[in-house]
Design goal:
The chain has 114 residues and is of the alpha+beta class. The protein has one domain: HIT-like (HIT family, subunit A), CATH 3.30.428.10. The chain has three helices and five strands, in the order αβββαβαβ. Strand 1 and strand 2 form a beta hairpin. Bound molecules: adenosine monophosphate (AMP) and zinc ion.
């Protein structure tokens, strides 16, 4: 746990969240400022600042995140599709420095990605 990290505090239960998925490695909860009808954040329980902090030993956690995303997409009836986004660093628009994927869906998303 990183004591200065908002998402580590959510994992520790020190800050409340609207949990939608949990297993031993992954937690998912609703984004507090949703940008679509479905906007879920999927995070590893282990703290990594971003994709840039992953190594050969830890990168497999992104596979666990993808499997959680797939299950959530089914539960939230996103049969027509959805988008998974991870922001990295300042230019990427990352505001919380704990690796997370946004699962966004429930509407026809823009073709523009920037
Ligand atoms: P990013 O800009 O990619 O770092 O995304 C951070 C996301 O965390 C934003 O979409 C915020 O709305 C969301 N967020 C910030 N604080 C909370 C919180 N306490 N609970 C749920 N989502 C949060
Ligand atoms: Zn953290």
């Amino acid at each position: 746990m990183n004591n200065d990290c908002l998402f580590c505090k959510i994992i520790a239960g020190e800050i409340s969240s609207a949990k939608v998925f949990e297993n031993d490695k992954i937690l998912a909860f609703k984004d507090i400022h949703p940008q679509a009808p479905v906007h879920i954040l999927i995070i590893p329980k282990e703290h990594y600042d971003s994709v840039n902090a992953l190594t050969e030993d830890s990168a497999a956690v992104t596979g666990d995140i993808m499997l959680a995303a797939k299950q959530l997409a089914e539960e939230f009836h996103l049969e027509k599709g959805y988008r998974l986004i991870t922001n990295i660093g300042e230019d990427g628009g990352q505001t919380v420095k704990h690796l997370h994927f946004h699962l966004i869906g429930g509407l026809k998303l823009s073709e523009k990605m920037n």
